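Instructor's aside before we start: the two examples that follow are unrelated to each other. I chose them only because their records fit on one page, so don't look for a connection. First example below.
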Amino acid sequence: MSLSSTVVVTKDQVSSDLGGEVAILHLKAGTYYGLDEVGARVWNLIQQPKLVEEVRDVLVGEYEVDLERCESDLIALLQRLAEEELIEVKGGTRT
C-alpha cells in the first residue's frame, strides 16, 4: 500500500456511528470491530474511493499531527483494515 493506492470500504460490512466512534460488523466473518474518533473519520472518508494521499491530507488539515506520523499511522490502519477484509485496496506500490 502506498500514498497512490485507492481505498474504499467493502460491501461485506455494515457500520454504525456511535457518538464519534464507529462499530463495524464484517458480515461474512461475523466479527465486530471498533474505531476511535480518528479511525472513524478515516472510515467516513473512504465510503467512496479515495487515494491514501487524499485521506492523509484531510487528516493533517483537521488534526494536530505531523505529516510523517499521520502517513505512518494511516497506512498501518488501512493495512489492518485490508487484512480484515473491511476495505479494498487498488493500485499503488509499497512505499
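Example two begins here.
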Amino acid sequence: MPHAGAAGGARIPAIMPRRHDSGVTAYVGLGSNLDNPIEQLRAGLKSLAALPHTAVECCSAFYRTAPLGRLDQPDFINAACRVNTALPAAGLLDHLLAIETAHGRRRTDVGGPRTLDLDLLLYDALTCRTSGLTLPHPRLHERAFVLYPLHELAPDLVIPGRGALTQLLSACSGQKIEKLTLTL
C-alpha cells in the first residue's frame, strides 16, 4: 500500500453515545479540501454521530489524496466510517446532504473544491439506482481515496457488483494517497 502511518481504524468513543444494533451497517466516505479540511472532517464526524437512530462504530485514519478529474484544486483529506443505522438508505442520504449544507457545502462546481463531502458508499449489501441514490456509490471501485479507508475498516469487504475490496485496490495503485498520522 502506498501510504505510511499508524495502522488500523480509529475508535471514536467520545462521539458515539448510542448504538442501534437493530440497524444495518453502512459506510460513509468523508472528504474536504477547503477551510481547514481536517477540522471539516472532524466536524462532519460529530454531526454524523448525532444523527437519529445511527451510531458511528469506527472511522479510518485520515488520508491526503490528490484530486482526480479537476486537478486545479488543493489536495483532499479523506476518510471513511462504518455506521450502524436504523434509517433507510434514502433517509440516511438526506441527512448526509443536510450535514454538508450545514457545513457550507455548495453544489455549484461539479468535481470542484468543497468544504465537506459526505458520500453514502455502501448500505448493507443493497444495490439500487434511482434518480437520487445509487448504491454502491458510483466509481467507488476506481478511487483510492475511498478504497484505502474502506480496506482499513473492513479488509474482507466485498463491493456488490464489483468484487473483493482487496482486488479493487490494485486497480488504483497509481493514485497518490498518503495516510496521515494524527488523532481524531
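The radius of gyration is 15 Å.
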